[in-house]
Specification:
Elements: H1 30-43, E1 53-54, E2 60-61, H2 65-75, E3 79-84, H3 89-99, H4 102-111, E4 113-118, E5 131-132, E6 138-139, H5 142-154, E7 161-165, E8 171-177, H6 182-189
Amino acid sequence: MWGAPLKALSGYLPPLETQDFVMGQKGTGVEAGLAATAAASSAHTGDASGKTVTIAHGLQAYTDLDEAVAAATETGKPIFVDITGHGCVNCREMEARVWSDPRVLAKLRDEFVIVALYVDDKTKLSESEWVYNDSGRALKDVGRVNSWIALKRFGVNSQPNYFILDSAGQTLRGPRAYDLDADAFLNWMTL
């Protein structure tokens, strides 16, 4: 109520940063709400160019696996793969109840290159960016390409699913699916 976090309901509610009043947040009110809404509208949108976007808890994530691998190669950090969706209730609940754990959040922020693969992103791709599946069908939007990557590369077709890759893009851990045990998630993340 009145902007307090409701973790048990978080997956069913709009993201906290889209609210006009958030308890304990400086500059609450209409202006802050408009700023938060503007930030949130860009926060969970993938982009076809592979540039980073802001996701839950202010984390920066790539939206293109190849660009994440390039960044990981450059930094020497492992890659945290987040197979997610804009409309994924369980994804939002994981972010609110597990990622919000200060230990998990610190690891995500400091120790990984993050890539968020939104499987329901309707952003259209230019014809030169289309990907063709095994049957020759053209995948013409970001979400369909990410769904195909999730299935072909990682063997999953649901979200959330998480993987950890080394800096060269080879799978080290995963899949890890919806599970609200923050301690277990932290142990799984620890390499």
